[in-house]
């Protein structure tokens, strides 16, 4: 999992610290004065996969990102979401009637109900 950090106040002389917590792992990135962007990553080994309704459990992970000035409290900003891990492919191989139009989620062919607009 990766978080891209872009500093909007490039003229400020304040070092920042970004904390990423996900799947039981906590990582801190120091963003010194003069550095405008960076990437913060957390490895989630063998995550449980998110599945659509009717195909399995929608495993979700809590993700929290915090921004601190000088790497200490108080927190300047926070972002929290629940995210799922999955692979999505669209199979459009030639078939007996033209071309397939099948979604493949986590390696499994899925019948998607409703409309699909690409």
Write the layout of secondary structure elements.
Elements: E1 2-6, E2 16-22, E3 25-31, E4 37-41, E5 61-69, E6 75-83, E7 88-91, E8 94-95, E9 98-99, E10 102-105, E11 108-110
Antiparallel strand pairs: 1-4, 2-3, 2-5, 5-6, 7-10, 8-9, 10-11
Features:
11 strands; mainly beta; three-stranded antiparallel β-sheet; 118 residues; 2 domains; 0% helix; single chain; four-stranded antiparallel β-sheet; 48% strand; elongated; Immunoglobulin-like
Briefly summarize what is shown:
Keywords: Glycosidase, Hydrolase. Helix content is 0%, strand content 48%.
General description of the model:
Residues 36-86 form the Glycoside hydrolase family 2 immunoglobulin-like beta-sandwich domain. GO terms for molecular function: beta-mannosidase activity. It comes from uncultured Thermobifida sp. The protein is an all-beta fold and 118 residues long. It folds into two domains: 2-86, Immunoglobulins (Immunoglobulin-like), CATH 2.60.40; 87-118, no CATH class. It has no helices and eleven strands. The chain has strands at residues 2-6, 16-22, 25-31, 37-41, 61-69, 75-83, 88-91, 94-95, 98-99, 102-105, 108-110. The model has no long low-confidence stretch (mean pLDDT 88).
């Amino acid at each position: 999992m990766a978080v891209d950090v872009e500093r909007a106040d490039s003229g400020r002389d304040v070092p920042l610290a970004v904390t990423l917590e996900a799947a039981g792992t906590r990582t801190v990135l120091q963003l010194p004065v003069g550095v405008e962007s960076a990437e913060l990553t957390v490895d989630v080994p063998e995550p449980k996969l998110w599945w659509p309704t009717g195909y399995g459990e929608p495993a979700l992970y809590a993700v929290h990102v915090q921004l601190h000035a000088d790497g200490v409290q108080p927190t300047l900003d926070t972002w929290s979401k629940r995210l799922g891990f999955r692979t999505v492919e669209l199979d459009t191989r030639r078939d007996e009637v033209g071309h397939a139009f099948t979604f493949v989620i986590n390696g499994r062919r899925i019948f998607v109900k409703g409309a699909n607009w690409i």
